[in-house]
Amino acid sequence: MQDRDGFIWLNGQWLPWRDAKVHVLTHTLHYGYGCFEGIRAYATAHGPAIFRLDEHLRRLEDSAHILAIDLPYTRAEMAEACIEAVRRNGLDSAYLRPLLFLGAEKLGVDPAGAASHLMIAAWHWGAYLGNQAMDTGIRVRVASYARHHPNVQMCRAKAISTYANSILAVREARRDGYDEALLLDTEGYVAEGSSENLFMVSKGELLQPETTSALDGITRRTVMTLAADAGLTVRSKRITRDELYCADEVFLTGTAAEITPVIEVDRRRIGKGEPGPITRRIQQAYLAAVRGEDMRYRDWLTPTTR
Ligand code: PPE
Questions:
Q1: In terms of pTM, does the model score above 0.90?
Q2: How far is the CA of 196 from the centre of ligand 1 (A)?
Q3: What pLDDT, in 10s, does the model give residues 91-122?
Q4: C-alpha 197 to ligand 1 mean position (Å)
């Protein structure tokens, strides 16, 4: 990632890509305390546009608030930097990564005295789980690791430290020949994928886990709106793994993963073992919205062209 042309925004300055470095005694590097966002910009008929930028930046503010890390930039300043990151790097479509971290001013678990630093980078990132995944669907396994109990780590924050748990789970899944891991909460109910929220379809109804031990995903919220507008009912409830095995359809949602169909869970075929009709419908509606092809959702797009 480091050896590229382009520019990265760090603490209000545009640095050449290869010079955007931190010191080895950076607090967040040692203790994993910080938070971030993942945002996509899509090619539209009016040039590259960022999808739900304000919601993502608001969640970054919420994450910083939950972790009690000072975020020394306004939403308008961060939005401008995101727009400029797409523009300055000459991108048609992009993945944007703002990250708030604590610096090398001091070490020791208590971060008092370490300053906040914010970086924003943008680059081209294709299909998250591979080109085939969106089309033919993926195979997932339930992880042997549980997702955090809300008193261990608060999942509403998109905290860096959540991802050690995600990494353990995804490596276990890949080692065992699966594409992605699914984490249950500490009581055994479905929480989320290693980096996606989950939906299941049962008897024509869309069901999704409550987000006590999962990130309140923006793609998830988008899907709820798209589904409601398409006349589908969406309900949040506790979901057990056996309910999932018997679902008609399952799919994962995330900024990076977009709408990825799941065709197998723990070697049990889901539905007919191929992406189902409701999954396809949601996928098409999502892609039309992010590409600016559906006028009803144009407010979700921030143009990056002047
Ligand atoms: N849960 C987790 C744990 C998660 O990381 C993501 C996004 C979601 C749910 C979906 O949230 P949203 O993007 O707002 O719909 N994961 C980001 C990071 C992926 C990465 O590998 O890095 C993402 O999709 O951008």
A1: yes
A2: 5
A3: 999 999 999 999 999 999 999 999 999 999 99
A4: 8
